[in-house]
């Protein structure tokens, strides 16, 4: 694996470690200031978010509603400018139906397409996105 792909995977790990620790600064650290995030099938979190301020607000709301989450095991398809994250299944049950795609430009995530894991239940069993 080349150095660029290794760096891109490190960005993804940092984002997911931020989700698991509940640290928004870690989540948004690999984002470009002009990041565009498309979220689908996540109820109150659905939408398109433009810029680092909107991204930060999205993840602050997400963590406020759910707290830190356990990221399910996943496979990553790596290209020089694109990472595709495919969950392998977990306590989310239907996690295999989700898919996250991150596009990199100039050494930062510039765009992301996030599809929700099941909208009924999160890892704690609470109503998640209702």
Overview of this structure, please?
It is built from 3 helices and 6 strands. The chain has helices at residues 3-21, 24-28, 51-66, and strands at 31-40, 47-50, 74-78, 82-87, 100-105, 108-115. The chain is 31% helix and 30% strand. The chain has one domain: Roll (Nuclear Transport Factor 2, Chain: A). Residues 90-96 and 119-130 have low confidence and may be disordered. The longest helix has 19 residues, at 3-21. It has 130 residues and is an alpha+beta fold. The N and C termini lie far apart (41 Å). Strands 2-1-6-5-4-3 form a 6-stranded mixed β-sheet, covered by helices on one side.
CATH architecture: Roll
SSE series: HHEEHEEEE
Hey, roughly how much beta strand do the residues contain?
A: 25-35%
Helix share of residues?
25-40%
CATH class: Alpha Beta
Class computed from helices, strands and strand pairing: alpha+beta
User: Per CATH, what is the topology?
Assistant: Nuclear Transport Factor 2, Chain: A
Stretches with pLDDT under 50, minimum 5 residues: 90-96, 119-130
Query: What is the number of strand segments?
Result: 6
Mean pLDDT: 80
Strand order of the largest sheet: 2-1-6-5-4-3
User: What count of structural domains?
Assistant: 1
The radius of gyration is 14 Å
Approximate shape? globular
């Amino acid at each position: 694996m080349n150095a660029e792909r290794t760096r891109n995977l490190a960005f993804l790990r940092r984002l997911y470690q931020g989700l698991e620790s509940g640290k928004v600064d870690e989540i948004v650290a690999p984002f470009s200031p002009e990041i565009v995030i498309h979220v689908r099938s996540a109820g109150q979190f659905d939408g398109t978010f433009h810029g680092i301020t909107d991204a930060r607000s999205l993840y602050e709301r997400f963590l406020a509603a759910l707290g830190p989450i356990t990221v399910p095991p996943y496979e990553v398809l790596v290209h020089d400018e694109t990472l595709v994250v495919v969950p392998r299944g977990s306590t989310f049950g239907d996690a295999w139906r989700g898919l996250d795609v991150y596009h990199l430009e100039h050494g930062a995530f510039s765009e992301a397409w996030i599809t929700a894991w099941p909208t009924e239940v999160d890892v704690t069993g609470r109503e998640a996105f209702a």
